Amino acid sequence: MEDYHVATFVEKGEHELGLFAIYDGHSGDCVPSYLQTHLFDNILKEREFWVDPKKSIFKAYLKTDEAILSHEKGLGRGGSTAVTAVLVNGQRLWVANLGDSRAVISKGGKAIQLTTDHDPNTERASIEHKGGFVSNMPGDVPRVNGQLAVSRAFGDISLKCHLRSDPAIQDTIVDAKTDLLMLASDGLWKVMENQEAVNIARKIKDPQKAAKRLISEALKRDSKDDISCVVVRFR
């Protein structure tokens, strides 16, 4: 188990921010642990955040990845996917991700995916342009250079020249129809469709119990990967 998560609210001047994240590590837990401590700090340090949140998040992701690579001796050669969500004053939601950890919201019970799964086959052209390759072995998922099952990630210094670390970013308005947000690592999504997850979570009023129920269901479905989940319920 190499996952770390964030689920907290902070006050920034006159603003309330909800900070939520899942960091799914591979080849060690040093990188996701570093992300848990530093990524949101880097996002909120950016002066542009209150003027241009998208630009601020984009820059913070790249700066954080550069810092991870520069601390290779301390953090090792591993890496991590990430999905982050910043809820501004309960009204505007900014979501970003690298890799296959995913964010899904429910509007009136309908599941809407806010993130992009960065699959090696989908970004094959970019990988090959950088001199890498994508393996498609029978019985296995597509992998960058036969190793990593995602095309974007933090860290992974041995593969970085063939990977991307620029995040996919999307924002949405939290309106009266928005009932919940969930973030989860791919251990959940490998065995559960977005709508299935929403249907399960909506039946449970307490968000922590809903997250535990989703993890339990993924285990029942024989998920073999790390499973982490955060559920946020809107009133």
TrEMBL record:
Stored PROSITE patterns: PPM_2
Keyword set includes DNA-binding: no
Keywords annotated in UniProt: Hydrolase, Magnesium, Manganese, Metal-binding, Protein phosphatase
Catalytic activity: O-phospho-L-seryl-[protein] + H2O = L-seryl-[protein] + phosphate; O-phospho-L-threonyl-[protein] + H2O = L-threonyl-[protein] + phosphate
Source organism: Mikania micrantha (bitter vine)
Protein name stated in the entry: protein-serine/threonine phosphatase
Gene Ontology terms for molecular function: metal ion binding; protein serine/threonine phosphatase activity
EC annotation from Swiss-Prot or TrEMBL: 3.1.3.16
SMART domains (UniProt xref): PP2Cc
Pfam families: PP2C
Domain PPM-type phosphatase residue range list: 1-234
UniProt xrefs under PANTHER family: PROTEIN PHOSPHATASE (PTHR47992)
Cofactor(s), names only, from the UniProt record: Mn(2+); Mg(2+)
Family classification: Belongs to the PP2C family.
Signal peptide boundaries: none
Enzyme class: hydrolase
Keyword Magnesium found: yes
